[in-house]
Predict the structure.
Amino acid sequence: MSRIRGWPVTLEEGPVGLRPLRVRDAAVLRRTRVRNADWLRPWEPTHPEMPLQTSNLTPYVAMLQAIRREARQGISMPWAITYNGEFAGQLTVSAIVWGSARSAQVGYWIDSSYAGRGVTPTAVALAVDHSFFTVGLHRIEANIRPENRASRRVAEKLGFREEGLRKRQLHIDGAWRDHICYALTSEDVPDGLLARWRRRGGRTAGPDMSSNAE
């Protein structure tokens, strides 16, 4: 499959939005990640081609070009998370597999200044609903470090099912780290994940952190 049905698309729920990442986001992406380097480092996969701190835009431009290319190939949906129209983070539905699997992974990070407002779970719910009911995916995973309690709470509050530990799954902050696999299938949320999130109050009680399923 070379093109994703329903992509590119902008999604909104109140002040929270998802819009496709653009190459011209490189500057704001760099500023945000550098400002949040200490916040993100314990949870971010080690990407030598895109360090958290760099004065050079080139790695960010290259990364954005690469993920947009993956979107054109039908294997990724890279969004900017926005809050009242301002850049607030990144969410990517990636590792999309078609055929009989129709599965993907969701990963996200958010600017610490927007934490505690329910931005992350709302953005995840928007992305999952679009992935299931427009794109046609069947299963979505979020793989999260056991130590990342805030991100685990996001998955749990949304009703993701814990499916077990994946040993040394990703290289993060200098070492191979274990991850807990959380998952949803379309049958789990027949009325949509966003509707479930609204019924549960529509916001988190604590801070939102980053998931590493990218």
User: Anything to note?
Assistant: The chain has one domain: 11-199.
